[in-house]
Description:
The protein has twelve helices and eleven strands. With 325 residues, it is of the alpha/beta class. A six-stranded mixed β-sheet has the order 2-1-3-10-4-11, sandwiched between helices. It has a five-stranded mixed β-sheet with strand order 7-6-8-5-9. Helix 6 links the parallel strand 6 (157-160) and strand 7. The longest helix has 22 residues, at 299-320.
Amino acid sequence: MSIREKFIGSLFPALAAVLLAGSMSPALAQGNKPVRIIVPYGTGSGADIVSRMIAAQLAERLKEPVIVENRPGNSAIIGVNALKNSTPDGYTIGVLVSGNAAQPWLTKDLPFDIRKDFIPLTLLYSGPLVMTVPVTLPVKTLAEFVAYAKANSGKVFYGTLGAGTTTHLAAEFLKQAANIQMTNVPFKGSAEIHTAVASGEVQVSFDNYISPKPLVDAGKLRAIAITSKNRTATLPNLPTVAESYPGVEVGFWTGFAAPANTPKEMTDRIGAALRAVLAMPEIRRRIAETGSEPGGGSAAEFSALIDSDYEKFGKVIRAAGLKPE
């Protein structure tokens, strides 16, 4: 049975000014109260980079200020819970990630229900993860990494964004498939993960390629595998994990949502504005260059994806023997 799940770049300013009046409701167009986008990861993460990319383009077409607010920590739970607890008046939206659909099966006392506490707006992007190691590690292939891990049992650490995230599950699935021992080291954000890998503090990580790419390009990290079923057009020479371990396929998705009970007029208009930006050829090209598939589908499609992955992850996680912590 296939195992699937649907992300250090340059630091961006903490504030992105966005114009929101044109296609928003009159309630938004009045006054100057800013709209917040809550990102549950730190600056430099894939979700942060692409959210700010979207915000910059929204600035060209809409006329209301938008603040991008990073609320990292605890496997994205802090930021997503902040979105849940925000006033549902149309002035706050946020980012949900695929790991949130797995967390109910892995996390005790999760403070939100991804299926009930949010109104999905649109998918932002989706795609596979890339496995990277320090260039100082004496491995250039997945087979060499597995051999290294077996020869150094108990001494190999992998960096993640926390339990239940794709960065965690990808490493766990490889660990089980290859019968190797690795220890999870959680970080608040992707930038911290890849800095730790490049320095050799941890030996491996899985993440959306947009995050480690600058360090790969700088010759400080080495990409050795990708978690898609087939090789990708963006990285055609990078072997898949599934080529060595059939069935180990792990992906991610990221999307925008509003708190439950936000008025439908507001979510319809905000969703339409987001989808219009995501339909722009330049935005789609820039997202694709990161190794991800651009989103922009309907709210109903995003909602169906959340429900489907919740059920799918439950089956996969139970089969993998992972328990709530």
